[in-house]
C-alpha cells in the first residue's frame, strides 16, 4: 500500500448483481474515477491534460460487495515518451488483502489534432512525483463515527 494516492468509494446497489457482488465492468469505471482524482491531485494543470486510454487489464482475486468501502491505491507504474501507465490496487478499506489489480495505459494527445504528443517536462515531473499521502474520500470513510 505504501504512501500512494488513495481513493475511497462506497459500492452502490446499482453496481451489483443479484448476489450483491460488483459487476466486473464496474471496476473499469472505478479505475477511471480514481485516475481522474489522482491526476487532479498530482498535476496542477489537470484540466488541460488530454489523454486516451489505449489498454487496460484487470485481475480479480476476490469479490467486492454492496455497501463496502473500497480503497483504490493509485500510482504511476511507467512513463514513456507519450504514454503513462497507471497501476491501481483495490482493497476493502481497512484490510490489507488486494481484491483486484488494474493496469491502465494512457497516451497523451494534442487536443486540436487528436494525435499523440510527447509528455512535457512539467507534466512528467508531476507524474513521477505522484500524490504521495493524498487521499480523496467520496465514501465518507474517514468521517464515520
Question: How would you describe the overall organization of this protein?
Answer:
The chain has 145 residues and is α+β, with helices and mostly antiparallel strands. The protein has a single domain (5-134), classed as Thiol Ester Dehydrase, Chain A. 18% of the residues lie in helices and 35% in strands. The protein contains two helices and six strands. It has helices spanning 26-42, 121-129, and strands at residues 5-10, 51-60, 69-79, 83-92, 98-108, 135-137. It has a six-stranded mixed β-sheet with strand order 2-5-4-3-1-6. A hairpin with a 3-residue loop joins strand 3 and strand 4 (83-92). The longest helix has 17 residues, at 26-42. The radius of gyration is 16 Å and the shape is globular. The model has no long low-confidence stretch (mean pLDDT 95).
How would the blueprint of this fold be written?
Blueprint: E1 5-10, H1 26-42, E2 51-60, E3 69-79, E4 83-92, E5 98-108, H2 121-129, E6 135-137
Parallel strand pairs: 1-6
Antiparallel strand pairs: 1-3, 2-5, 3-4, 4-5
Amino acid at each position: 500500500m505504501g504512501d500512494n494516492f488513495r481513493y475511497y468509494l462506497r459500492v452502490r446497489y446499482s453496481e451489483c448483481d443479484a448476489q450483491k457482488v460488483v459487476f466486473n465492468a464496474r471496476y473499469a469505471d472505478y479505475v477511471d474515477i480514481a485516475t481522474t482524482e489522482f491526476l487532479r491531485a498530482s498535476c496542477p494543470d489537470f484540466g488541460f491534460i488530454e489523454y486516451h486510454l489505449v489498454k487496460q487489464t484487470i485481475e480479480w482475486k476476490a469479490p467486492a460487495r454492496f455497501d463496502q468501502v473500497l480503497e483504490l491505491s493509485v500510482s504511476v507504474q511507467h512513463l514513456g515518451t507519450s504514454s503513462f501507465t497507471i497501476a491501481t490496487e483495490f482493497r476493502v478499506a481497512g484490510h490489507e488483502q488486494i481484491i483486484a489489480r488494474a493496469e491502465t495505459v494512457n497516451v497523451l494527445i494534442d487536443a486540436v489534432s487528436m494525435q499523440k504528443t510527447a509528455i512535457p517536462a512539467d507534466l512528467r515531473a508531476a507524474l513521477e512525483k505522484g500524490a504521495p499521502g493524498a487521499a480523496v474520500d467520496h465514501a465518507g470513510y474517514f468521517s464515520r463515527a
